[in-house]
Design a protein that fits this description.
Layout (H helix, E strand, L loop, with lengths): L3 H18 L7 H25 L2 H13 L1 H16 L9 H15 L19
Helix pairs in contact: 2-4, 3-4, 3-5
Protein name: Programmed cell death protein 5
InterPro entries: PDCD5-like, PDCD5-like_sf
Organism: Protea cynaroides
Length: 128
């Protein structure tokens, strides 16, 4: 039952299916490793820049936010890094400044939720 030709056909077919689904990368392992290392280096540089820009209290608050809402924390980090790169931040960001920044972002992105209740009239009710 362990026919080598049959096994080779199965392997090829499995690779084709994975390529169609986008699961299998056509890159070799060295390229994948290099990409992962580049991502890790970029994240390390990002964290280094944030540690230079934020005070320790502000970093702690941002870490707590990241536990609950990682996408929101990432957005705040992006805003802070862009402001620092454009020269708008000249001193370390304190916790109070971070809170005011968070409030500004919340006001800009707040969503108004409106609930309307529609009651169905019963067939047996006769209001006429």
């Amino acid at each position: 039952m362990a026919d080598p030709e049959l096994e080779a056909i199965r392997q090829r077919r499995m690779q084709e299916l994975m390529a169609q689904r986008g699961v299998g990368n056509q890159q070799n392992p060295e390229q994948q490793k290099a990409q992962e290392e580049a991502k890790m280096e970029a994240e390390e540089r990002r964290q280094m820049m944030l540690s230079q820009i934020l005070s320790s209290e502000a970093r702690e608050r941002l870490a707590r936010i990241a536990l609950v809402k990682p996408e929101k924390a990432r957005g705040v980090e992006d805003v802070i890094l862009r402001a620092a790169q454009m020269g708008q931040i000249v001193e370390k960001v304190s916790e109070e400044k971070l809170i005011s920044l968070l409030e500004q972002i919340n006001n800009q992105t707040s969503k108004q939720t409106k609930v309307t209740i529609q009651r169905r009239r019963s067939v047996l009710e006769d209001d006429d």
